[in-house]
Amino acid sequence: MRRAAVAIAALWVPLSGVSGSLAQSVPDLDAVIAAFRDTFGSDCDSGGMDSDLFERFPPEVYSVGSPDRGERLYVLICNLAAYNATYALYLSRPDGQIEQLEFATPVVNFGASPDDAGESAAFVRFDTDALLFNVVVDPAQMSITARVNWRGLGDAFSEGRWVLRDGEVVLTDYVIDPTLDLEENPIQIVQDEIVVLP
């Protein structure tokens, strides 16, 4: 798993959504978009078929750490669907290096039926994801939350929270609700950085 080395000395400072002429005030944006398109190409609507997706949903840019270091976190939309959108996240450094972030996510076995998940769910391993769903950045907590809605009603989902800490992207919490019962009753998989599911 690749880990992002991030110096965090202060709160993230959110910048404006960036598009068109605003891009000139964020000098790394063109390089980040080029890296994004090189990695994902036509796998993302914003890199292929729907090339104006960035105009409708401009990249989000956050200053990471102390302002004099010039590190920035970029959140770029990849695909947009009915109730989920996917995003790629990049970090640019003062030396010009651009790094794509990857996120640890648990793989869980639910046995024969997700409806019995409370009794049969078992942690299998960790995997890594380069794209996150429905990303929310919390500058005050220096955290990234992502939620995958398994259907439009939102009663079945998985949701994770990661923080940038001591140079790493750390998964702190992860829940899954695999049941189609019109209620939210998630199973805690990871809590306070510890796998709590057997």
How would you describe the overall organization of this protein?
The strands form 3 sheets. Strands 1, 2, 3, 4, 5 and 8 form a 6-stranded antiparallel β-sheet that branches. Strands 9-10-11-12-13-14 form a 6-stranded antiparallel β-sheet, with no helix packed on it. Mean pLDDT is 79; it is low at 1-24. Strand 4 (85-92) and strand 5 (98-100) form a beta hairpin. The protein has 3 helices and 14 strands. With 198 residues, the chain is mainly beta. The chain has helices at 29-40, 53-56, 117-120, and strands at 13-14, 60-64, 71-80, 85-92, 98-100, 103-109, 122-129, 131-133, 136-138, 143-149, 157-165, 168-177, 187-191, 194-195. The chain has one domain. It is 10% helix and 41% strand.
